[in-house]
Amino acid sequence: xxxxxxxxxxxxxxxxxxxxxxxxxxxxxxxxxxxxxxxxxxxxxxxxxxxxxxxxxxxxxxxxxxxxxxxxxxxxxxxxxxxxxxxxxxxxxxxxxxxxxxxxxxxxxxxxxxxxxxxxxxxxxxxxxxxxxxxxxxxxxxxxxxxxxxxxxxxxxxxxxxxxxxxxxxxxxxxxxxxxxxxxxxxxxxxxxxxxxxxxxxxxxxxx
Length: 208
Prior knowledge:
- The chain has 208 residues and is of the alpha/beta class.
- It has 2 domains: 2-123, 3-Layer(aba) Sandwich (Rossmann fold), CATH 3.40.50.2300; 133-207, Winged helix-like DNA-binding domain superfamily/Winged helix DNA-binding domain (Arc Repressor Mutant, subunit A), CATH 1.10.10.10.
- It contains 11 helices and 5 strands; from the N terminus they run βαβαβαβαβααααααα.
- It has a 5-stranded parallel β-sheet with strand order 2-1-3-4-5, sandwiched between helices.
- It is elongated, with a radius of gyration of 18 Å.
- The two termini are 27 Å apart.
- Mean pLDDT is 88; it is low at 136-142.
């Protein structure tokens, strides 16, 4: 898998490149220090995935993402940034980014997200995913129940709270249930949706 890394901070960029280069099956084919360089480099190297910072000189990450996807629509642009405000998230996703991570992510999480992006999935930071899902008009419990008929009403409600980034104790407090009961619901949800963890469950909600 060919990857381009775009970040205006050289030390951060080189660290990301080192992490990716150590991962099996990933080849970093270029580095860019601003959005304009990223667009030019992607046109030249045609990578499968671009790891894109947002706040960069010359051309910001949102504009660079839009330009890249206009020229090479099959390219997957994954945002990796310090910023997690609603405007940044919406701008990146509206421009066509396939996923969004913050720089709090570990090296293994970044590698997994790049692999997920290349596989056509939508890797999202758990906190980001919760906000995105919570903002969708069909993300209410009844809609989730309709979309996932294998779930009970209670399980659909728990899934909605998972998608909002809530922990098991927080969900238990919201629903006035024991933590052990919530754990049982979560395990049942994972089994019925065929997923292994919360991130995968959120991705299922995203995909519908």
